[in-house]
Amino acid sequence: xxxxxxxxxxxxxxxxxxxxxxxxxxxxxxxxLIFGVLYFCLAVAYLALWRAASDxxxxxxxxxxxxxxxxxxxxxxxxxxxxxxxxxxxxAVAILVETAAEAMRIRNxxxxxxxxxxxxxxxxxxxxxxxxxxxxxxxxxxxxxxxILIIQGFxxxxxxxxxxxxxxxxxxxxxxxxxxxxxxxxxxxxxATIGGWRWQYTTCSLTLLGAATLAIFVRDLINDRREKQRxxxxxxxxxxxQQVLIxxxxxxxxxxxxxxxYKPYGEVGGDFFQVLPVKSDSGAGGVLVIIGDVSGKGMPxxxxxxxxxxxxxxxxxxxxSPGDILAAMNQRMLARSHGGFTTCLVLRADxxxxxxxxxxxxxxxxxxxxxxxxxxxxxLGLAAETAYHESIFQVTQGQQITLLTDxxxxxxxxxxxxxxxxxxxxxxxxxxxxxxRAAQHxxxxxxxxxxxxxxxx
Length: 457
What we know:
Structural class: alpha+beta
Order of helices and strands: EEHHHHHHHHHEEHEEEHHEEEEEEEHHHE
Number of domains: 2
Radius of gyration: 35 Å
Number of helices: 15
């Protein structure tokens, strides 16, 4: 005894999927087969592009849409307007609305999901002829949603978004012809007969829509990749500049054990430091330490760092006064800040343990676990008349002076809490590597630079 799967009104499933269609009728429907193949080709093209550029989610949405539309065309060609066609139509119009919103880059289109219960209801009721009156509901809902989205695309989008909106606007009136209510009311068929074949307005316009949007999206992809290549080249150049300017090895300076750690947060950071040996008038050795933080990131910050480091290296040949060095750096930065600024601290340590420090808005150094009370000046590049006063301290044998950037203090954990000045002061007597590692593990949120000078015998 053979079991026959029944569905809906009691007909075998295969017969419902592909009811017999006269040969002459299939000849008339040949364009459906042609468009079905075209839809599948568009689906393959979109999905292949999505696989190559997974960050372009609209490729995936368009690929799924045209795969569903292609399946609908094949079912309609082989079986006419049956249950599968109604169900796939409900699914297709739902995906079409979501895809249109994504294509036009509408910011908030969650409201379109309010229509999904209608789409899903029609998807299942398509198998029951007694509920055929709901078959046009998805079309009506999708048309209303599509009209609102088109208006939003024109009002709030840029030129590219308006071009997509124009494509969907051209398709909008053709979409109305798929409704059986439209045919009953107007008496106009949804197809034109040319050469004995029925060319449906909707399928023709959908093919043009798919080709037009594909061209626009491919252009978006090309422009996006060009921009990313440009940014990658800029970052590579910035890294190259920074590797030259940030010293990998610290020079040995008599009387001081110097350590440094530099951990950029991104590809190219804005922190910089220099450690330069100097000689006093008496001929005794000493060290000049410069640490700073340029506002901004990327290549502009790297170029500013290069300017500052070049200035410092030149000035160090003529003066070892921290105040004079900052004043000259400030003058150099005035016409080159472009709205930004730079914090900087210059410290000169003499062989006898004398520290001379001038500060331009930077975090003060720590000595013996306490922040040094410095007289602060404005950051570099803000005001021409800024004076940078020098503060003098004394460091004894075995004491450590710790300089750092705000990446340590402003490290932030997952809850949003800052590492803060208290934690920084508590670990300021540790090694540079230990301080940087503690801030990084807490939650690095900016470039981290730490310099320590331990006075030895």
